[in-house]
Amino acid sequence: MYKAPVEDYQFLFDHVVGLDGLMQQLGNEDVSTDLAEAVLAEAGKLAADVIAPLNHSGDIAGATRLEDGHVKTPAGFADAHAAMRDGGWSSMESKAEFGGQALPMTLTIAANEFWQSANMAFALCHLLTQGQIHALQKSASPALQQTYIPPMVEGRWTGTMNLTEPQAGSDLAAIKTRAVAQDDHYLISGQKIYITYGEHDMAENIVHLVLARTPDAPPGIKGISVFIVPKYLPDDNGNFTRPNDLRCLSIEKKLGIKASPTAVMQFGETTGSVGYLVGKENEGIDIMFGMMNHARIAVGLQGLAISERAYQQALSYARDRVQGVPLDGKKGDPILHHPDVLRTLVSMKAEIEAMRALMVAGATAMDRAHHLGDGEASQFDARVGLLIPIIKGWMTERAQIIASQGLQVHGGMGFIEETGAAQHYRDSRILTIYEGTTAIQANDLVFRKTIRDQGAALFALLDDIDQDMTDLAGHADDKIPAMAARITEASTAARDVAAHILRGTNDPRRAAASATDFLMLMGTLCGGWMMAKSAAAAAHQLGNEDCENPVFMKAKLGMADIFMTHHLPQVLARAKTILEGDVPVVSISPDWL
Ligand SMILES: Cc1cc2nc3c(=O)[nH]c(=O)nc-3n(C[C@H](O)[C@H](O)[C@H](O)COP(=O)(O)OP(=O)(O)OC[C@H]3O[C@@H](n4cnc5c(N)ncnc54)[C@H](O)[C@@H]3O)c2cc1C
């Protein structure tokens, strides 16, 4: 059983980020809290009733059957895809000119969380298609846009991202796939591995976005271009039925997300796959970053989503399972009443709420960056750039811990596949690997987002956190100023660490050695910042005589308290490790291992 956390999003929209005010500021008055309420209710229903029931059966069936080059997805997947298409869910994010609804990210992330919680292996297809639409809207020619975007918006076609090759994983500079110009197109040849939904039976056509090199391209990352390579090309009548020269060679057997096909794709075995250049030659990496940034946020969201699912599963088990008599309890009370089980569940819930609040804050920054005028938007561009590695890295790393905690609550039954807890644990494991491993996110945060601008974007974020905490210092509920003081202390520690990193740039190995600790520190701090703001909003609501849902608001305050006491101290601990630990790491000889 999965229940979409609709009320949590409503709380964030109504009381923390002020959705109505934000949308008015962005000139998007059509989007209101009333519309959000209706959208979330419907999205939650589809996730719970149609998509979630296929999670366990999909895991058992897997998507590894390759017959005559075609992959059969698990039973029910094609119907669920059709239900999403018919419900208009594949058009939520895209621009109106391509048939989309152009809904703001602040709203669409909620629905996307629900799909990913319900069934991550299934929803990955949607994630990649939306990422590709995003990239093509930004960078493709009008003719390519008109041909390829609308069918993906309608949900008839799906999209993939073809970066990885056997010798080119984290290091995309090593890509070898070739693209040779011919007439109005290019001929593509090469092999790509690990291509998610590279082949499947849920759509009429699959649009591959492929990184490749032209013959005269400069070596390394500056010589990469990006191409649209459709599975089917247009026939003489303009219908996309003519097979392109590409083939799925095999489907990987893997630890988790078993229902999503992970394909080895061969392009150009005979004549060469017909591909169309997106943007200009050698601009591929910048264009692909348009898609990867979107996908990195979406994978961070998967971290939140799988954590929520693992939590709901664990809570439900803890409410039923009877074992021993809890202290101060009575015979027959379930394990939920053991203080340690309670500790585990509240720790999970507090962190999930922090992730969700940070995700909403990130989405509002993205909407501002997208809709505000050039001058104002640039500061939000910098904020989004800074938050992307934090959201992707922190949320996916914590998802591993939360999925593991969920399993632990089940005891032995967690290790048995029947409950589903083991599947969440296995499924979560990919999240810190694809779309750039945590180390790649951490390098991005430290080198591109902190050192390159001498900490400007980072210090601007810390200034905003400090300002918000100053604003909370006079709050009538005395719990709130105490939380604000803790966050300010953590923010000061983050400043010390940033200054330390900026001072040590003469040996970049030191910054690289502490990059992951820094990323995790920033994730916890930003989560705490948003939890303090949520707590203040909840306390404000509780102060109203006509507070509609006092239990919900008290729980929000309680979770913020747990975050401050159980999670925030990690900021100070990591700061100490970085300040004292980077030199010891780089002074270890690899020969000693
Ligand atoms: C299930 C699944 C689905 C996938 N889907 C897709 C897809 O749809 N499209 C696609 O193109 N790819 C996809 N991938 C590929 C995925 O993005 C890569 O696996 C990932 O980028 C890591 O590359 P790699 O596996 O070659 O590992 P490597 O790059 O070999 O990394 C090995 C280790 O070295 C570390 N490392 C490497 N370089 C650095 C560095 N510079 N600094 C610090 N540490 C470093 C890494 O963090 C990692 O711990 C998928 C992979 C899987 C398993």
Brief description of this entry?
The protein is of the alpha+beta class. Helices cover 59% and strands 11% of the residues. The strands form 3 sheets. Strands 3, 4, 5, 6, 7, 10, 11 and 12 form an 8-stranded mixed β-sheet that branches.
Computed over alpha carbons, the radius of gyration is: 24 Å
Mean pLDDT across residues? 96
Number of helices: 20
Helix content: 55-70%
Shape, principal axes of CA atoms: globular
Bound molecules: flavin-adenine dinucleotide
DSSP E strands, number: 12
- Give the terminus-to-terminus CA distance: 46 Å
Largest sheet: 8 strands, mixed
Backbone structural class: alpha+beta
| Low-confidence parts | none
> What proportion strand?
5-15%
Question: What this model shows, in words?
Answer:
There is one protein chain. With 593 residues, the chain is an alpha+beta fold. Helices cover 59% and strands 11% of the residues. The protein is built from 20 helices and twelve strands. It has helices at residues 6-16, 19-25, 33-51, 54-61, 77-86, 105-118, 120-139, 142-154, 284-320, 339-371, 374-409, 412-415, 421-428, 438-451, 456-472, 479-503, 508-513, 515-543, 550-567, 569-586; strands at 65-67, 70-72, 157-162, 178-182, 185-196, 205-212, 225-230, 232-234, 240-243, 246-251, 262-267, 273-278. The strands form three sheets. Strands 3, 4, 5, 6, 7, 10, 11 and 12 form an eight-stranded mixed beta sheet that branches. A two-stranded antiparallel ribbon has the order 1-2. The chain has a two-stranded antiparallel ribbon with strand order 8-9. The radius of gyration is 24 Å and the shape is globular. It starts with 5 loop residues before the first helix and ends in a 7-residue tail after the last helix. The structure holds flavin-adenine dinucleotide. Residues 161-164, 169-170, 194-196, 254, 262, 430, 433-434, 436-437, 439, 443 line the site of flavin-adenine dinucleotide.
